[in-house]
Specification:
Strand content: under 5%
Keywords: Membrane, Transmembrane, Transmembrane helix
Shape: flat
Order of helices and strands: HHHHHHHH
Radius of gyration: 18 Å
Number of domains: 1
Distance between the termini: 12 Å
Helix content: over 70%
Length: 179
């Protein structure tokens, strides 16, 4: 996927999320309250993590253990099954944290190899997402701690939603006009 389409897709998601926060803050607040204990998002993000991890493992040079590369997809399915079965509490924020860390790898790689101007804007966003992803992996309860000030203060919530919309529009413009 090209940097142009990556910027447009992330811009659409950010703009859409920001507009939902502006127009229907009740939906976002309800989602933020229910997300940490939701089973379906945890399974979806875990499946995406297994897929992205298998993809990255298949692409890297493993030296002497390159012989296991044909089995990586089967191992990923096994890891997903074990995660679902053995983890007593597969928390959605922890799975989201893993996803944020793993999805940033191909995006940063594409951006840095593109040679396009202002690719650093997208890379900086991805680095912030990686840091947030690591925090969620290590301490999934920080999901609620992080969002609580925004949920308690309506004015701050609107400002953040406007900021998210502005970043989304900036990414859309970069994708459409620059990349």
């Amino acid at each position: 996927m090209s940097l142009q389409w990556i910027a447009i897709l992330i811009g659409l998601m950010a703009t859409g999320g920001g507009l939902v926060g502006i127009l229907r803050p009740d939906l976002v607040k309800r989602f933020a309250g229910l997300f940490p204990r939701s089973v379906v998002p945890a399974w979806v993000f875990t499946a995406l993590c297994c897929f992205l991890g298998a993809r990255e493992a298949g692409a890297m040079n493993m030296g002497a253990v390159d012989v296991i590369k044909p089995y990586i997809p089967f191992m990923a399915v096994g890891v997903f099954g074990a995660s679902i079965y053995y983890m007593k509490e597969l928390l959605a924020p922890r799975a989201l944290g893993g996803f944020l860390c793993l999805i940033s790898v191909p995006i940063v790689k594409t951006a840095s190899q593109s040679g396009q101007p202002f690719f650093q804007f997208l890379v900086a966003i991805m680095y912030f997402l990686v840091i947030y992803g690591i925090i969620l992996l290590m301490s999934p309860w920080y999901f609620r701690k992080f969002f609580q000030p925004f949920l308690d203060n309506d004015a701050l919530f609107k400002v953040v939603a406007l900021g998210k919309t502005a970043v989304g529009v900036a990414l859309l413009l970069l994708g459409a006009l620059v990349y």
